[in-house]
Amino acid sequence: MSSAEPIKVAIIGGGLAGATLANAILKHDHLDVNIFESASEFSERGAAVSLAANAQAALAEIGGEVADVVERAGGVVMSSSRLCMGSGPDAMSIVFDLGAEMRGKVVHRAALLAELLKPIEDKKKHTNRKVISINDSAKGQVEINFEDGTVFHADAVVGADGVRGYVRCHVLGKDHPAVPAKVAGFWDARSLIPMQKAKALLGEEYFEIDRQYGWIGEGGFIMHDVLDGGDTVQCVVCGIVGEGDEWAEGEWSKPLDRAALEKALEEWTDTPLKKGIVEAMLQNPDLKAFAETHHAIDAPTYANGRTCIIGDAAHSMTPWQGSGAGQAIEDAMILQTLLEKIKSPDQVAMAFQTYSEVRKPRTQRIIHSSCGTGVILCGRGADVGLDAAKIKEVLPGRWAFIHRQNQGEHKEEALEVLAKLLIAHPLP
Ligand SMILES: Cc1cc2nc3c(=O)[nH]c(=O)nc-3n(C[C@H](O)[C@H](O)[C@H](O)COP(=O)(O)OP(=O)(O)OC[C@H]3O[C@@H](n4cnc5c(N)ncnc54)[C@H](O)[C@@H]3O)c2cc1C
């Protein structure tokens, strides 16, 4: 027996994960989707996000409105990327230029979010709705309670509420050690400066073509790339937490001054680039170092009955392998595949159990790989250090399993697991 009424799906959180899923399942008449965002508007902070081959393949598999959403949002193939050494015996040498597969497409975050949300009816998009508790009700539905006192009942709840959201607590139990994200051991800071200023500070030679540069050095990493069609240069400095600076428990950001920057780059080879990047960073009058966090402890599950978690709520990772948004898109692809197959609210828990089983190994592997990649990019890889030849040997393979994912096979794997569950638990 299948349900005559559509299955009511509530998505909590209107970031890239929630918006991708909402858009992906919109085409299924047996699913009725509402999306709830705690902020007063749907918005994305930060400039651009890069989506590698695996993310683009997942968008293509979702199909429909989503297939070319990156292009409609103005996404372009990422400019050339070059990895170099900033200190050690090979200082100022090139390690390698990244292949097209690793570069992917780069798109403005706000434009992508707006495109994803566009086809969803206004009455289904809710802002100022912060979830504060979730209860499984006797009727089988899930009761969602909001801070403003309102309540919504859904057949299926998807927590896409980010790294500091609520739904992870509900799925794992609030005292589970895997609930909080932990400091990953790195900090990063950003400064946006006009192109002319960047040329003067860093050197004209880095801007002859539109190229992203990464610099590996002792205990840190520097990156600079060109944004806004060539008008702006983004400069990033990353360091290791606890070396020359102490972070108090629960401290996520702190001001970064000249002394702290110079301390972070103390062991780097003295070059015009090193001096220039310090000045470039100090152009930001509100310069702050942000502690990078991640879900260091593997969650035992991403699902609990009729509630599941996706995106950063499920598997927050450090940005070293640029994969968080890509994994959120893969989550949406798998959930859409599974929700398409179910016909009754009584099958929601089986779809979510399948999603968890299929997505956990890959996403948790990337959490740990990303952190390990950060160690190498900060010049601290075991048996690698600042040896450019060894770095060239070990780095590319770290992305291969992420980018070369066969998304069609991933969907098939999920469908096989779900089919077994549906046969084992037939509807009355
Ligand atoms: C510096 C940096 C660079 C990155 N670069 C890349 C990259 O190049 N490529 C890539 O693939 N990934 C990248 N990532 C990762 C990527 O940005 C994230 O993984 C992705 O944006 C997560 O999306 P999300 O929707 O899961 O979470 P979020 O974007 O955090 O969205 C969660 C939403 O839920 C809302 N919310 C929170 N709590 C509640 C509640 N209780 N009730 C209702 N709503 C709630 C929030 O307001 C928010 O809108 C980067 C990350 C960082 C930090």
UniProtKB/TrEMBL annotation:
Keyword Flavoprotein tagged: yes
Domain FAD-binding: 293-368
Keyword Metal-binding recorded: no
Gene3D superfamilies: FAD/NAD(P)-binding domain (3.50.50.60)
GO molecular function: FAD binding; oxidoreductase activity
Pfam families assigned to the protein according to its UniProt record, in alphabetical order: FAD_binding_3 (PF01494)
UniProt keyword list: FAD, Flavoprotein, Oxidoreductase
Top-level taxonomic group: Eukaryota
Residue stretches spanning the membrane: none
A GO biological process held by the record: secondary metabolite biosynthetic process
Protein name stated in the entry: FAD/NAD(P)-binding domain-containing protein
Source species taxonomy: Eukaryota, Fungi, Dikarya, Ascomycota, Pezizomycotina
